């Protein structure tokens, strides 16, 4: 038996035979084409259109976050700049296959160098290019295998188009050699409740057909398991399935301390499913969906209609809305589309909104109108707040427009370190662990080469979260968590131990987090958090918390 370690997504456990993702198709030859440039152009045009429509179709079928990702890929396939690059190569007598391969590779390298949101899109270009080239060759695009029986899928990483439409009757679990807890694969696996362990470097040596156990709770892949190992894993899977079917109860610790479990939503369409899965409200409603697909800002009326639909789905419940979080990393022509060398550190979030204050004022107007017409408990927060002055500015402006509860997101270390002063002005704070980790560790969360640093378990990140938790307790202000960290069942306990008063996550993660919280008291949570804080790195913190999460006696015995 061998244990391979990675980052587990959720609490699930699964077992089965390995099926490996096919390697990418070989690069096309650079030989001259036997066809004319016009004939090759017609082939490319048809292939690109076919791939774009297929991606859109997959997105429509998948829905949710996958729909947004796949629609972005479809737009990328038909990007005029890429079309021009391909045309240049075709005009020099190249084949359609080579022109697509070379043009996409050139574009990918350019986007990679830009980093940020655009840098993330670079990885998707490879998948789009592979699909177009496969269509030109008349062969199936590289994708998820179908061995004819249920299997554990092993891949370097998964393209969004593949993850979105996985057949969950066939794919028992995912293992990837790359990626971290905030990668596309992790986010989509969490959304679909797929058992997954990502970033398992040793998985490259797994053999087709061998039986493995994938333990997401432990972040472990076990090879050559014994019959007893397999039986224990099956018992755990059965117990988890039984717990998931139990009646839904509010989030709470074992001693009865309430910890509301809220949903992260990207549009009102997900509200009904969130309620069905046990969400007690909304901890993060992203308003970008109204802005990113438009060449001009939506009107107050358009915004009010969407906000009203969301609020109406949660009568009497807390709904936390984040005002527009966009800027140089997600360029908007009506906000800020100026090129910046380092967009993650540029004019984004509250900075961009202050530079175009009319957009912020219109958004606050629409939110106040929607609040007046519904019975939900509306809270509104500003993104990327870095200073006390920005806090005072946003809270005062929101109050002027009739917003009763105005707060800030803590995503920048400066606001965490000054949380005692920030929360003297804000009604609440919500910690975005994805960006807080990125800025604390100086590691772009969208860049695969530094994915190992993008781990919210790092003690440096946990210390900053404790600063905010302590400040919240001092001022009597709520402190929520709305980053991906809240969806990690064990880390959720640690976050509560650090002072978080609510947790917001993908709705499919709520059941696992609820079950994890119910195993521990407030005293337990604080003890487990202290164990994690005492570590020197993310892996050690996770391991220390896992040991401490047992009874104190068992934890002491394991430590000795």
| CATH H-level homologous superfamily name of the largest domain | Phosphoenolpyruvate-binding domains
Give the helix proportion (percent range).
Answer: 40-55%
CATH fold naming of the largest domain = TIM Barrel
Structural class: alpha/beta
Approximate strand percentage: 5-15%
**CATH top level assignment of the largest domain:** Alpha Beta
Averaged pLDDT, please? 89
Question: Biggest sheet, strands in spatial order?
Answer: 1-8-7-3-4-5-6-2
Number of domains: 3
How is this structure best described in words?
Helix content is 47%, strand content 14%. By secondary structure, the protein is α/β, with parallel strands linked by helices. It has three domains: 2-22 and 144-244, Phosphohistidine domain (Glucose Oxidase, domain 1); 37-137, PtsI, HPr-binding domain (Enzyme I, Chain A, domain 2, Orthogonal Bundle), CATH 1.10.274; 261-513, Alpha-Beta Barrel (TIM Barrel), CATH 3.20.20.60. It has an eight-stranded mixed beta sheet. Strands 9-10-11-12-13-14-15-16 form an eight-stranded parallel β-barrel, surrounded by four helices. A hairpin with a 4-residue loop joins β7 (211-215) and β8. α1 (37-62) packs across α5 (116-137), α3 (80-90) packs across α4 (96-114) and α10 crosses α12. 54% of the residues are buried. Mean pLDDT is 89; it is low at 553-560.
Short characterization:
With 560 residues, the protein is an alpha/beta fold. The chain has 22 helices and 16 strands.
Please tag this protein with its features.
560 residues; alpha/beta; Glucose Oxidase, domain 1; Enzyme I, Chain A, domain 2; TIM Barrel; 3 domains; 8-stranded mixed beta sheet; 8-stranded parallel β-barrel; 22 helices; 16 strands; 47% helix; globular; disordered C terminus
């Amino acid at each position: 038996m061998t244990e391979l370690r990675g980052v587990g997504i959720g609490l699930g456990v699964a077992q089965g035979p390995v099926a490996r993702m096919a390697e990418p198709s070989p690069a096309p030859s650079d030989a001259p084409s036997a066809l004319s440039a016009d004939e090759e152009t017609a082939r490319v045009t048809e292939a690109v259109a076919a791939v774009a429509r297929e991606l859109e179709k997959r997105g429509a079928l998948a829905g949710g976050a996958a729909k947004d990702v796949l629609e972005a890929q479809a737009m990328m396939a038909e990007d005029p700049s890429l079309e021009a690059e391909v045309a240049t190569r075709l005009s020099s007598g190249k084949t359609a296959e080579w022109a697509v391969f070379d043009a996409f590779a050139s574009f990918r390298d350019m986007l990679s160098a830009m980093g940020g949101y655009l840098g993330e899109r670079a990885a998707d270009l490879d998948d789009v290019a592979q699909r177009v080239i496969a269509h030109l060759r008349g062969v199936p695009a590289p994708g998820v295998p179908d061995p004819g029986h249920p299997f554990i899928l092993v891949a370097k990483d998964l393209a969004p188009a593949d993850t979105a439409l996985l057949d969950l009757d066939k794919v028992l679990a995912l293992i990837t050699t790359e990626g971290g807890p905030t990668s596309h694969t992790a986010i989509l696996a969490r959304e679909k409740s797929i058992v997954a362990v990502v970033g398992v470097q040793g998985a490259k040596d797994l053999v087709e057909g061998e039986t493995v156990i994938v333990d997401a709770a432990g972040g472990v892949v076990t090879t050559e398991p014994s019959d007893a190992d397999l039986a224990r894993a099956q018992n755990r899977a059965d117990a988890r399935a039984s717990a998931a079917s139990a009646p839904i109860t509010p989030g709470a610790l074992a001693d009865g301390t309430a910890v509301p479990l809220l949903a992260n939503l990207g549009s009102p369409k997900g509200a009904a499913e969130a309620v069905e899965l046990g969400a007690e409200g909304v901890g993060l409603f992203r308003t970008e969906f109204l802005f990113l697909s438009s060449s001009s800002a939506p009107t107050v009326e358009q915004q009010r209609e969407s906000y009203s639909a969301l609020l109406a789905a949660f009568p009497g419940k807390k709904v936390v809305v984040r005002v527009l979080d966009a800027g140089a990393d997600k360029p908007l022509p009506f906000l800020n589309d100026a090129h910046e060398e380092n967009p993650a550190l540029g004019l984004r979030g509250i900075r961009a909104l202050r530079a175009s204050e009319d957009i912020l004022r219109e958004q606050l107007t629409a939110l106040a109108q929607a609040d007046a017409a519904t019975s939900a408990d509306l809270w509104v927060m500003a993104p990327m707040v870095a200073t006390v002055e920005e806090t005072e500015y946003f809270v005062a402006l929101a109050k002027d427009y009739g917003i009763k509860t105005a707060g800030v997101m803590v995503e920048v270390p400066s606001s965490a370190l000054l949380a005692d002063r920030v929360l003297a002005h804000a009604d609440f704070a919500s910690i975005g662990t994805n960006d807080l980790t990125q800025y604390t560790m100086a590691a772009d969360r969208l860049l695969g080469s530094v994915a190992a640093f993008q781990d919210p378990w790092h003690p440096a990140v946990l210390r900053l979260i404790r600063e905010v938790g302590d400040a919240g307790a001092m001022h009597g202000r709520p402190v929520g968590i709305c980053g991906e960290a809240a969806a990690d069942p064990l880390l959720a306990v640690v976050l509560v131990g650090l002072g978080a008063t609510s947790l917001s996550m993908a709705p499919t993660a709520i059941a696992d987090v609820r079950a994890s919280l119910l195993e521990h008291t407030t005293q337990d949570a604080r003890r487990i958090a202290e164990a994690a804080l005492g570590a020197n790195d993310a892996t050690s913190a996770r391991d220390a918390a896992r040991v401490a999460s047992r009874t104190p006696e068992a934890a002491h015995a394991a430590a000795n």
